[in-house]
């Protein structure tokens, strides 16, 4: 009788020990799975974070870096300089470092400067003015070396001309410059006959990427 009880007790202990080992094995497996899952999740978060950072960096670079133009101005017999490569037209946030000054095209802000004969007496953002050029406007710019008489005469012309605008650009190389999408020239004064020639050719001219697009409803200062 005692022997039978001893055998039963030993068998029960063996089963308990076996169950304990099985439970420990399950716990080890669960720990391994948990650690593995954690590594995968952390890895995914790191990769995702890296992707977001890289994406943000790309967004930032697209909004503040160069317009990406590798071309140059080519001067024609008429004195007009035209850009030698296709100008990009991507809408970006922030400033753009243009390859020319004043810029004649490239990436720009999604909002244009009003260009329905608008005369601005203070400098405007180039990223908005470039959008106006995309709509077919001629942009008259001047610096402090231009005479008051020329500035007034050019302002009078712009005010009478839809799809044109005017503003000071102090850091441009010449006193008076005319710009359109992909084209630019310097004029000697408001009486220079090339002023009218440039307006006639480039106001809503063949160079316009978005001919007929509005010159109102944008920024006015």
Automatic annotation (TrEMBL):
Keywords assigned by UniProt, alphabetized: Membrane, Transmembrane, Transmembrane helix
Superkingdom as given in the UniProt entry: Bacteria
Pfam families listed in its UniProt record: DUF3105
Compositional bias (Low complexity): 1-11
InterPro entries hit by this protein: DUF3105
Region (Disordered): 1-22
Record field: transmembrane: 32-53
Official protein name in the record: Membrane protein
């Amino acid at each position: 009788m005692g022997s039978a009880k001893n055998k039963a007790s030993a068998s029960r202990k063996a089963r308990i020990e076996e169950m304990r080992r099985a439970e420990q094995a399950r716990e080890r497996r669960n720990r391994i799975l948990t650690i593995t899952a954690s590594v995968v999740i952390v890895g995914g978060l790191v990769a995702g974070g890296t992707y977001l950072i890289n994406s943000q960096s790309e967004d930032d670079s697209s909004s503040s870096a160069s317009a990406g133009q590798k071309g140059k101005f080519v001067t024609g017999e008429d004195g007009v300089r035209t850009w030698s490569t296709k100008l990009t037209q991507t809408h970006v946030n922030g400033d753009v470092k243009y390859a020319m000054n004043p810029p004649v095209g490239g990436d720009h802000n999604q909002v244009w400067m009003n260009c329905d004969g608008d005369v601005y007496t203070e400098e405007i953002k180039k990223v908005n003015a470039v959008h106006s050029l995309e709509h077919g406007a001629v942009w008259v710019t001047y610096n402090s070396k231009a005479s008051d008489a020329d500035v007034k005469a050019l302002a009078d012309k712009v005010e009478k001309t839809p799809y044109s605008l005017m503003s000071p650009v102090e850091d441009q190389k010449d006193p008076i410059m005319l710009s359109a999408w992909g084209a630019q020239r310097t004029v000697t004064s408001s009486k220079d006959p090339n002023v009218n020639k440039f307006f006639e050719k480039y106001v809503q001219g063949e160079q316009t990427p978005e001919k007929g697009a509005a010159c109102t409803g944008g920024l006015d200062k």
